[in-house]
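Hi R.,

Here's the chain you asked about this morning:
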Amino acid sequence: MKRTILSLLLATTVLASCGNPMTKTESRSFPQAATDLNGVTLTVWQSNTLQAGYKTLFADFEQATGAKIRPEIFPDPYESNLLTKWATGTRPDLMIFQSTASFMRRLDPAKNLYDLTGQDFVAKQRFGLAKTAAVLDGKNYGLSLEPPSVFGLWYNKQLVEKPPTNLTELVNACKTIKQQHPGVTPLYDAGGDQWTTQILPFMLWTDAMKAGLQDKLNDNQAQWTDPAIVDALKAYKSLVTEGCFNSNLKTGTYAEQQEKFAAGQVAMLPQGTWISSDFVKSVGVTTMNQKMGWQALSTTSPTAAYSTTFSVQMPRTGNEKQEQAAAAFLKFASGAGYLHFVDVQKQAPALTGFTTPPEVPAATQAAYAALESDGTSYPQLFAADFGPFPTYLSKLINGSSTPEQVAADLQAAWAKSAKTAGLTGF
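And here is the predicted structure, written out as tokens:
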């Protein structure tokens, strides 16, 4: 999960999609799922860090149908390596790939992928996934089997009596912790690993993005120098200046972040729900439920931002038999095979009709409940890329860039990316 969000947040290079030479398949409707799969082999493109649930799903599908799954594994950087082969016109039967709008655009899905809009298995998706994951120009090109990654504030229940729900309360919580627990670090961020530093700004932007800023950015009606962006960066810098973060902010690591928080030496973490599985491994669900809480937070409201992860996409290959078999896999993955997938993943189900396993901690369940009540999805809906944000934030942390300069860097990268992608209005 962490690797997935890294790919999303760190995406900086727009690779032009090449049209599929098999354009005659464009008008074909979604194929009928095959019922006889004996002797069929489906090629599936996947990353080298694919989670165990997918591997279980493949094995279950083979056992249930007699078909074979032939995985083609791409090394990191997975996305760019896959897109390089995609550009040659080669197509798999299925692929497990990013579901962000910017990545979807690179696949030229109207020509190269089957539109899944209206299919029963797409309608079963929770958390608004049918409208946000693998969606481009109003059409859905992927089936999401994983719940989204949710950004929020993890907190120690023994140190934080009332978790902050907005920026003002976060600042006040920092002051209170410093006064009442002088040996405890209010917030920890991993400047050494860099990527984690993006999460709190993303949380603080959620209110503005939900109010329409993202749409304006995508349409070139606003820029990344917008006051809402700059003010969030100023807030982050102020928290640094006020000593709310760990003293080794510049060199801190994701691993130490987990360790210090689990040990009670850190009160709050701005993090994604992917960290939940790491805590389960290190301290167990029982301890997590006793000591760890989760709270949605943005600048002025307790609104959670989330980002979708991988989805299963079905390329147009022009081979009717293979396409019918691929359709059968999607039906199996969202039906008879999904319960085992959820149990192996130990995740909240992304599809209706399935029960959350008891191994999912209460804090993680709270994050998903926040999505269903008042969450908003925006990172995966950016139409272009905004550059190496962690690098820009490193400069903010070490004092070589101001919030205004970071915002200007984001805008410059955004404009370049949008023009390269040929987006209208840029």
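One quick note: The chain has a mean pLDDT of 92.

Cheers,
M.
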